[in-house]
Amino acid sequence: MLTSEVDFSGRLPIEGYGPGFFRVAGAIHEGPLALLPSGPEPWPGLHDVGLFLNRGGAIDVLLVGTGPEIAFLPDETRRLLEEAGLGVEAMATASACRSYNVLLAEERRVAAALIPI
User: Fold this and answer.
1) Domain that holds residue 40
2) 3-state secondary structure of 84
3) Does the global pTM surpass 0.70?
4) 29-37 long-range CB contacts below 8 Å, 24 or more apart?
5) Predicted local confidence at residue 11, as pLDDT
6) What is the total count of domains within the chain?
7) Residue 112: exposure state from Cβ atoms within 10 A (0-12, 13-18, ≥19)
8) Could you report the per-residue pLDDT of 64-104, keeping only the tens digit for each?
9) Domain containing residue 63: CATH number
């Protein structure tokens, strides 16, 4: 099945990614990216999780793509997100992109915080 054959209920899946960029809805986004229920937004990186805290009521799961390799989230970052009621999963960015699309297709309330590979 092709990604274009999946119904994402109006939300935008990740169509591709590569060194330093993500492609969402045909648009190229360079650098770290937040994928929220409202759409993609530039994201400064792990030191700024306010974008996600402010939308906690619309998000159940936050997938954090940590770059080419899996990395632990800073303790303070994880604490802030979990205290806001978000389920947080850190993984390599490629895995986060695939997982995001699967959860989106399942109509889950998912968001992604992605650091490019």
Assistant:
1) 3-114
2) coil
3) yes
4) 30/116, 31/116, 32/113, 32/114, 32/115, 32/116, 33/112, 33/114, 33/116, 34/111, 34/112, 34/113, 34/114, 35/100, 35/111, 35/112, 35/114, 36/111, 37/11, 37/109, 37/111
5) 85
6) 1
7) buried
8) 999 999 999 999 999 999 999 999 999 999 999 999 999 99
9) 3.40.1230.10
